[in-house]
Amino acid sequence: MNYEAYRLKFKGAVHFGSHSLESGCSSFCADTLFSALCQEALKKDGDTLQQFYAYAKSGQLLLSDAFPYAQDCYFVPKPVMHIESNHSRGDSVVKKAYKKLKYIPIDAMHEYVSGQYDVLHAPDLSGMGESVMKVSASIRGEEETKPYRMETYYFHEGNGLYLILGYQDKQVLSLVQELLQALSYSGIGGKKASGMGRFSLLPAQLSEGFLKKTEAQHKTYMSLSVSLPRDDELDQALFEAQYLVCKRSGFVDSIQYANTQMRKRDLYVLQAGSCFRTKYEGDVYDVSGQGGNHPVYRYAKPIFMEV
Question: What is the pLDDT of residue 263?
């Protein structure tokens, strides 16, 4: 497998869903990216969509979650594992700092796993941008306007999100690059019609040491994307695994699917940062409900790095 990384330099506000418009977050998961790329493929034609889906389904294409970068420092999720710190062992302040930590610099992974990471002086990502609560008015289908609140996020200059793309050959890479470029004009996340979520697509230079970690054979592997083992992989994948589970849900973003907006079936997946003893492939799952006119896919395949 070959790997490329891309920076997403956002041009304005973004809204990445949490549970409602009033709550949001500053990043998005691989399944959100996959769904957005499917929409861009469908805009071209049905054959392009089927080709893109086939690449993902067969494992010729792998997508990571979107993770933060600050200037030239790239971050990955904190591994879901117990760490014995060598810094003030047993200190409640250190324990609270570990609990609060969400991301660590890529190049600090060995320090972190070995307990050498100075968590009290870790980079403060709270300064990457700022959340703003926006008040708007809904007028669609209503006699009177109804105000609603939406949390948006603005990245400060030099900060943003990056993602990792795994691809089997140049044909796969060419298609995904084309779709990512189209997505940069359409935007990703909520309220795209009002201009949110648009970005410039730029190359990201990850270290050779990190790229080697994605292919290395090791005793512990961390997933860089939301994922879910297939039924025949589940028992082996979860043996001695350390993981967090989250529910992925949402509405179908397709006017051909039904006459009214309908929800996707919920899917419980393993969060990025979950750690495993055995690699697995995962799958692209059909989460369409009854009454829909076509399948609706949720991406749940991992990119692994050794830790």
Answer: 75
